[in-house]
Specification:
Helix content: under 10%
Largest sheet: 4 strands, antiparallel
Strand order of the largest sheet: 3-4-5-6
Radius of gyration: 17 Å
Distance between the termini: 37 Å
Mean pLDDT: 75
Structural class: mainly beta
Length: about 190
């Protein structure tokens, strides 16, 4: 994972550091990782990296002063049932300036492109991922979801499905963060 600093005046990026997967998690012929998405929690303590080819999540403590990432416990958290981890989203989204939205249960949403699902993983009160075999999955009711967007008031989440040319739409349960398909569950994506 390559980290950059942003110059506050010019907006230009400069190389900060590179965090590598340690032994046992290094990408090689038999153990491919494929990191492709990163989210930093609202409390700025944790960074979650979705790994496309290994279908798991690596956890990094995040140092907000230096931008450093160091692998947490030298392990990755599997997402059972998830094929091709594509994108991550957090509830609440990483906006520490929004004190009004503090749900009792926080969620990490994982877009699973190959299985056309969104996995819902629980975070503890410190926003650390709680490994569990009982991961809730919800279908996108389409083929090849490519991304997720959380609506500004944290009530709805949308996932466009590339191959089926539609957009899955969900409401977010206010106390648990669980996703519930809206009616209709998908809308046409256009042409």
């Amino acid at each position: 994972i390559t980290m950059y600093k942003i110059d506050p005046v010019t907006g230009l990026l400069s190389l900060n550091k590179t965090a590598k997967h340690p032994n046992g998690l290094i990408e090689n012929a038999t153990n491919r990782i494929g990191p492709n998405s990163i989210k930093i929690t609202a409390n700025l303590k944790w960074a979650y990296v979705g790994n496309n080819t290994s279908n798991n999540i690596t956890i990094y403590p995040y140092d907000q002063n230096t931008g450093d990432l160091t692998l947490y416990k030298n392990e990755a958290v599997d997402v059972p049932g998830c094929i091709q981890t594509r994108q991550l989203a957090l509830s609440p989204a990483a906006v520490p300036s929004d004190p009004l939205y503090v749900p009792p249960s926080k969620q990490l949403y994982v877009l699973c492109q190959g299985s056309n699902d969104i996995a819902q993983l629980n975070l503890d009160s410190d926003e650390l991922l709680i490994p569990s075999k009982n991961i809730s999955m919800v279908s996108t009711n389409g083929a090849s979801p490519t991304s997720m967007s959380i609506e500004a008031n944290y009530k709805y989440i949308y996932a466009p499905n590339m191959q089926s040319n539609n957009i899955a739409e969900f409401s977010m349960e206010s106390t648990t963060g669980h996703l519930k398909p809206l009616t209709p569950s998908v809308v046409s994506g256009g042409v």
